[in-house]
Amino acid sequence: MTHVLSDGWVIARAHLLHWVRNPAAILSGLLYPIVMVLLFGYVFGSAMAVAGAGENYREYLMPGMFGQTMAVGITTTLIVVTTQASRGVTDRYRSMPVSQTGVVLGRAIADMAGSTLELTILIACGMAVGWSWHNGPLNALAAMGLLLLLRFSLIWVGIFAGLKLTPEAASASWMIMLPLTMVANTFVSPAQMPGWMGALAEWNPLSATVAACRQLFGNPGFAGESWAAQHAVLLAVAWPVAITLVFLPLSARAYRRLSR
Amino acid sequence: MSHSEAMNSYSIVAEGLTKRFGGAHALDGFDLTVREGTLCGLLGPNGAGKTTAVRILATLLRADGGRATVAGLDVAAQPAKVRQVIGLASQEPAVDEILTGRENLVLWGRLYHLDAKRAARRADELLEQFGLTEAAGKRIKHYSGGMRRRLDLAATFIQAPRVLFLDEPTTGLDPRNRNEVWQAVRALVTDGSTVLLTTQYLDEADQLADQIAVLREGRVIADDTPDRLKSSIGGDRLDLVLRDQRDLQEAGDVLAAFGPPVADPDARRLTAPVADRMHALGQVMRELEAKGIEVEDVALRRPTLDEVFLKVTA
């Protein structure tokens, strides 16, 4: 127990060193949302009329981009967890007097640090294309907190799935994540989708976070008819908490089951 | 033997370990005792259960049945304590590609809860010991397969473990690298550690092991010193190399009087076990001469571990 924090920090630092050594990996990770901002902000956005988006589509788009980047961050967790398991790193940890909680804590610290950096750069990128917050810095910070809370909850999904998948499957998970993040209010209003898909999009956990962010940042497009849309902030807290409550114990169990 | 006795003199005791994966028995009554400060080679064909046995003893897997102690500690009941005193090198080097060799060792040292200074000092000692000092500052992605393997082994040596598990530690290494690994393992045994090593190379077991256990279908089917295992399959071997392949059949009949001969037609070679070596040699040569069979080479030798292996796993 005494070693949880120190082991966690040692492991997190090794992960962080990877970025310092390999900035190309982080840059390529960032390039995707930046390209999407440009594509949707200028190419599609100029041809789209999104219900409730107001005059400036980029004001509507940016909170969606932030949310999508947090959600897709799960693939980072997945890939690291599967790679370490297949290369015997996980086995070595398990054969050592390392705190197993510390190993997971290190993973979480590294993932959260990475996502915080991504979010910061993306916010700067948003400001460069004319997006900004309108309800003061405190509300803006609260919105960023909700975004990181979503990312935090997905760490446990990533660890759980990562212990069950091969590295190849983990790399392909990106293809599943992308549509999951689009059947939501990220780029367009669910009201414009076919009925069943719109309902799915309304209740997508990502939609709750994105709608809550629009509300807190003072960006257009958060209002809606449905209960989910009207209680976005509540859901933006409830969803990640529920996901964590389910997947944190599940990932701990998957870890224990490695010895079966 | 009582358990307390076992704990004093044996570092590894496994009694009736069983493990199933799905319906298949990976281990089916695995028994093994390894004396403290010795090296036991675990041999067996692929799929015999070598890796499963190592993973159970190293606390990575739970056995379905049976019990095992490592350094006197029950692997199922006290896994955390077992982990304090063991080292494990799996078949794949568990090294971090993006870090340097030295950073890898410092990282593992910190996770063994050495303070920063001691972890750094230990890393330098091990780099020296494994001939990696020059490559210490290079990232692992620039290391050769042999260098990765040595670094992985070095990591298991950080604490001078009381019991070391090596799962095929030299697979894929060239002879020079293999020799370096062997030297390091020998040094550790000399310092009092107990080593359980799985290998596919019989010469590796012959070189290093004080004890050899042969595994088949999840059970130990032979367990003794290399010398006694060789003797157990019946005395010496007589090798004959004939000048003419067509004489193989007739020469084989001569040898059959001593033991069942094995023929290798391409090498024109016949091998048979013989009990009384000098008597057998004289008689075989006289009879071959009488039959006019020309002999190119003749040798009396001890059985090899290969022959033991083939015999007991057949």
UniProtKB/TrEMBL annotation, chain A:
<feature type="transmembrane region" description="Helical">
    <location>
        <begin position="141"/>
        <end position="163"/>
    </location>
</feature>
<dbReference type="GO" id="GO:0043190">
    <property type="term" value="C:ATP-binding cassette (ABC) transporter complex"/>
</dbReference>
<dbReference type="GO" id="GO:0140359">
    <property type="term" value="F:ABC-type transporter activity"/>
</dbReference>
<keyword id="KW-0472">Membrane</keyword>
<feature type="domain" description="ABC transmembrane type-2">
    <location>
        <begin position="24"/>
        <end position="258"/>
    </location>
</feature>
<dbReference type="InterPro" id="IPR047817">
    <property type="entry name" value="ABC2_TM_bact-type"/>
</dbReference>
<dbReference type="InterPro" id="IPR051784">
    <property type="entry name" value="Nod_factor_ABC_transporter"/>
</dbReference>
<keyword id="KW-0812">Transmembrane</keyword>
<feature type="transmembrane region" description="Helical">
    <location>
        <begin position="65"/>
        <end position="83"/>
    </location>
</feature>
<comment type="similarity">
    <text>Belongs to the ABC-2 integral membrane protein family.</text>
</comment>
<feature type="transmembrane region" description="Helical">
    <location>
        <begin position="227"/>
        <end position="250"/>
    </location>
</feature>
<keyword id="KW-1003">Cell membrane</keyword>
<dbReference type="InterPro" id="IPR013525">
    <property type="entry name" value="ABC2_TM"/>
</dbReference>
<feature type="transmembrane region" description="Helical">
    <location>
        <begin position="104"/>
        <end position="129"/>
    </location>
</feature>
<keyword id="KW-0046">Antibiotic resistance</keyword>
<dbReference type="Pfam" id="PF01061">
    <property type="entry name" value="ABC2_membrane"/>
</dbReference>
<protein>
    <recommendedName>
        <fullName>Transport permease protein</fullName>
    </recommendedName>
</protein>
<keyword id="KW-0813">Transport</keyword>
<keyword id="KW-1133">Transmembrane helix</keyword>
<feature type="transmembrane region" description="Helical">
    <location>
        <begin position="170"/>
        <end position="188"/>
    </location>
</feature>
<dbReference type="InterPro" id="IPR000412">
    <property type="entry name" value="ABC_2_transport"/>
</dbReference>
<dbReference type="GO" id="GO:0046677">
    <property type="term" value="P:response to antibiotic"/>
</dbReference>
From TrEMBL, chain B:
<dbReference type="GO" id="GO:0005524">
    <property type="term" value="F:ATP binding"/>
</dbReference>
<keyword id="KW-0813">Transport</keyword>
<keyword id="KW-0046">Antibiotic resistance</keyword>
<comment type="similarity">
    <text>Belongs to the ABC transporter superfamily. Drug exporter-1 (DrugE1) (TC 3.A.1.105) family.</text>
</comment>
<dbReference type="Pfam" id="PF00005">
    <property type="entry name" value="ABC_tran"/>
</dbReference>
<dbReference type="GO" id="GO:0016887">
    <property type="term" value="F:ATP hydrolysis activity"/>
</dbReference>
<keyword id="KW-1278">Translocase</keyword>
<dbReference type="InterPro" id="IPR025302">
    <property type="entry name" value="DrrA1/2-like_C"/>
</dbReference>
<dbReference type="GO" id="GO:0005886">
    <property type="term" value="C:plasma membrane"/>
</dbReference>
<dbReference type="GO" id="GO:0046677">
    <property type="term" value="P:response to antibiotic"/>
</dbReference>
<keyword id="KW-0472">Membrane</keyword>
<dbReference type="GO" id="GO:1900753">
    <property type="term" value="P:doxorubicin transport"/>
</dbReference>
<dbReference type="InterPro" id="IPR017871">
    <property type="entry name" value="ABC_transporter-like_CS"/>
</dbReference>
<dbReference type="Pfam" id="PF13732">
    <property type="entry name" value="DrrA1-3_C"/>
</dbReference>
<protein>
    <submittedName>
        <fullName>ABC-2 type transport system ATP-binding protein</fullName>
    </submittedName>
</protein>
<dbReference type="GO" id="GO:0043215">
    <property type="term" value="P:daunorubicin transport"/>
</dbReference>
<keyword id="KW-0067">ATP-binding</keyword>
<dbReference type="InterPro" id="IPR005894">
    <property type="entry name" value="DrrA"/>
</dbReference>
<keyword id="KW-1003">Cell membrane</keyword>
<dbReference type="InterPro" id="IPR003439">
    <property type="entry name" value="ABC_transporter-like_ATP-bd"/>
</dbReference>
<keyword id="KW-0547">Nucleotide-binding</keyword>
<dbReference type="InterPro" id="IPR003593">
    <property type="entry name" value="AAA+_ATPase"/>
</dbReference>
